[in-house]
Write a structure and sequence with these properties.
The chain is α/β, with parallel strands linked by helices. The protein contains ten helices and 19 strands. The two termini are about 15 Å apart. Bound molecules: pyridoxal-5'-phosphate.
């Protein structure tokens, strides 16, 4: 990965498993995103990696934040974020948490239903709100559709209600699904948002914010469209849909800012077969689904792996975690191959693992501690 991470691993020989993140890569990613979409305000999706050093670095870079809970909001504030730079993006919030966010100065809230709007009107009166629209998540490795958002028809009605409740109806948000590899997904959604803007303008409500969400893909094992392909698709769609009156843009990147900034160093616990002469070896690692690799669920996110035997011949493997839970299998069908001379005690690196790992690790299932984290 980066020289900084390699030096740390060589000198410190940390206990495994552990996540090691190079914060300078996050800075570089932030810069690349800012130049690819200069019109958009960047709200980092805190859930991707809520570690304090990450949040502090992003505060220094001038990022805003998309938080999903009161504790995430507090982490941002502790890291030095201004409350005006935080959006409470969860569409299902407890009344008390809305009030807590409001009392700490947060003024921008998401919703996708009338009951949530009623809560916002009571607990965060006068706040700015955006409505999350349901969009298809085809092309996403980690879909977010179904659970979040409402139909365009309902969004129109809800924005009118928001205004009538004394809230500031700012705009529409969507999320095309995480690790979205079809730039056309953003284009279709932007077209739908523009139609909502037009309908509401006819009813006297002028919106000025399109929240394009996250979903920007990164290269794990397989190639994906680059950031420039996605940003170009977005720019084209905005120009086509809004002409010379472009709305304010907001993006909520998570994965693309932090994933390639870190790797997980793990250790091989056991290499075995289930019968004599079977070609497929089972490789048990000291990290699994409960230790931070939750995104291997359904083999959705397929990490690239690095071993100490790069030039050896390889053979097919099933990869599994260390716990006594039958569900703790990482990859069985994704066609992973590892060196034939791999053995217990060998180190193995899980690459591009800086997003959606450490904060997913359990507090101590089977006695295994949460994933260790180092930020360099
Ligand atoms: C998780 C999430 C994001 C971040 O998505 P990525 O695919 O990691 O960029 C952005 N917005 C919302 C509302 C989310 O829930």
């Amino acid at each position: 990965m980066t020289p900084k991470i390699d030096r740390f691993l060589a000198e410190r020989q940390p206990d495994t498993p552990c996540l090691v993140v190079d914060l300078d890569v996050i800075s570089a990613n932030f810069g690349a995103l800012r130049s690819a979409l200069p019109q958009a305000e960047i709200y980092y999706a805190v859930k991707a990696n809520p570690a304090s050093p990450v949040l502090q670095r992003l505060v220094e870079l001038g990022s805003s934040f998309d938080a999903a809970s009161l504790p995430e909001i507090e982490r941002c504030l502790t890291a030095g974020a201004d409350p005006s730079s935080i959006a409470f993006g969860n569409t299902a919030k407890k009344m008390g948490d809305i009030a807590g966010a409001h009392s700490r100065g947060v003024r921008l809230f998401a919703f996708d239903s009338e009951p949530e709007l009623e809560k916002l009107a009571v607990a965060a009166p006068g706040s700015e709100v955006f409505c999350r629209m349901l969009v298809a998540n085809r092309g996403a490795a980690w879909p977010l559709s179904g659970k979040f958002g409402c139909s365009a028809e309902m969004a129109v009605d809800l924005m009118i209600k928001a205004r009538d409740m004394g809230l500031a109806a700012r705009g529409i948000s969507f999320h095309v699904g995480s690790q979205q590899t079809e730039p056309g997904a953003w284009q279709a959604a932007i077209g739908e948002v523009a139609r909502i803007f037009t309908t509401l303008a006819e009813k006297g409500i002028s919106l000025d914010l399109v929240n394009l969400g996250g979903g920007f893909p990164i290269r794990y094992r397989d190639d994906v469209p680059g950031l420039l392909a996605v940003s170009e698709a977005i720019r084209t769609a905005i120009a086509r849909a809004f002409g010379n009156r472009p709305p304010g843009l907001m993006i909520e990147p998570g994965r693309i800012l932090t994933a390639n900034a870190g790797l997980i160093r793990a250790e091989v616990v056991l290499v075995s077969t289930k019968g004599y002469g079977e070609p497929v070896r089972w490789v048990y690692l000291d990290i699994g689904k409960f230790g931070g690799l939750a995104e291997t669920m359904d083999e959705a996110i397929r990490y690239a792996l690095r071993t100490e035997h790069p030039d050896a011949g390889t053979g097919p493997v099933v990869l599994a975690g260390p716990t006594c839970d039958g569900a703790d299998i990482l990859y069985e069908h994704a066609g992973y191959r590892l060196p034939m001379d791999l053995k217990a005690g060998d180190k193995i690196d899980i690459l591009d693992a800086g997003a959606y790992t450490a904060s997913y690790s359990s507090v101590g299932f089977n006695g295994f501690p949460p994933l260790r984290e180092y930020y360099l």
